[in-house]
Structure formats: C-alpha cells, structure tokens
Amino acid sequence: xxxxxxxxxxxxxxxxxxxxxxxxxxxxxxxxxxxxxxxxxxxxxxxxxxxxxxxxxxxxxxxxxxxxxxxxxxxxxxxxxxxxxxxxxxxxxxxxxxxxxxxxxxxxxxxxxxxxxxxxxxxxxxxxxxxxxxxxxxxxxxxxxxxxxxxxxxxxxxxxxxxxxxxxxxxxxxxxxxxxxxxxxxxxxxxxxxxxxxxxxxxxxxxxxxxxxxxxxxxxxx
Length: 222
Known about the structure:
Elements: H1 2-14, H2 20-23, E1 28-29, E2 36-37, E3 42-47, E4 53-56, E5 66-69, H3 72-80, H4 83-88, H5 98-119, E6 123-125, H6 127-135, E7 141-144, H7 150-162, E8 169-170, H8 175-182, E9 189-192, H9 196-208
Parallel strand pairs: 7-8
Antiparallel strand pairs: 1-2, 3-4, 3-5, 6-9, 7-9
C-alpha cells in the first residue's frame, strides 16, 4: 500500500503542467489589440538582420514572429506607437508607410496565386466560360476586373443570383493586372474552382480586405 501511495505521489509530481503556448499554438496575439486570432487573420512581422521590421506574408521567415491584425489602422498604430520596438525590447527600424508595404506584398502574393490557379486549370477566364461554370458546380470565387463593364458584370452577378450561387467576389484588380498575372492580354471575368487554391485565395483576400476594398464598385452576388 505504501509503495502504491508513493508511486501516485511521484506520478503527480511528474505530471506535465498545462502549457498555455501549446494550447494556443493555433492562434496568435495581436500586438495592438491583445486579441488572439488565427494566423490567417493577422500579418506576421520579423526583425531583419539590419534591425528593420519585415512583413512576412507567407509566414516562413526565420525569427520570432510579431503579429498584428490584418488591418491598415492596426499596422499604422503599431508603427506610430513604437510597439514593434517594445515587443522586441530593443530599437528597431520601421519602414515608412509600413501598411502600404504590407498591402503591396499582399497584392503581389494574391496575383501570384491567381497566376498559379490559371496555369493549373483551377481558374476559368472569359464571359462564356464563367457563365458555364456558374451553371455547373458552384465556383469558390468570382473575379471581376475593377475597370470592366458594369453591364457585363451585372449579367454575371444576375446569373449567379438566379442559380443560387453565393460566391465571394474579388474585384480590386484591373483587367490588365489580372491579365498579366494569368498570362492573358486582359481578364475581365474569371471563376475559381473549389479546392486548396481557393482556400489560399480566401485567406489572402480576407487579409487584403483590411488594406483596400476588394469588391467591385457596383454589384453583388448576394
């Protein structure tokens, strides 16, 4: 009996303590608000070799991550209030207009993903093909050029409503920007198929929406 009691006491002493970091490893804390969110709702920053603050859009750069909510005003606050330096506990160099730098990197990454989707056959371009996609399996995304014809856009969105397709719309890029990314002269209408690439695009556009409007100037599929 004594041996059993001693064993239980030993097991109790050796029981691992609760680790908050382990339990919360799927979320990160915003430097500005203190709220915890999934990494897809935040922007990661690291300190570069020259002590400069570097946005890590892909979340792969080495070093301790400093996380800020994916909103322009939060990045601006972190820069203006020297929150990056306080978090690092040392002097750091914050680039001018850091939120614009973040926006530019998100745009670049989003366009790269769109190009990859087009090359892999996961994105359909052209009015007729988008119409056919809407009449088949529901696309994950609709893409409308920001400078495209309002009439053509409304026809696409009207069909989406008739078909009961509640697709998110990405409409913050010009036809030339979309065309350059997808290897075409111009792209006005496009549809993204369901799948892993669409999920990556969803995360990117959710973050990009914190820095610029991502919907077309007029029209909605809702």
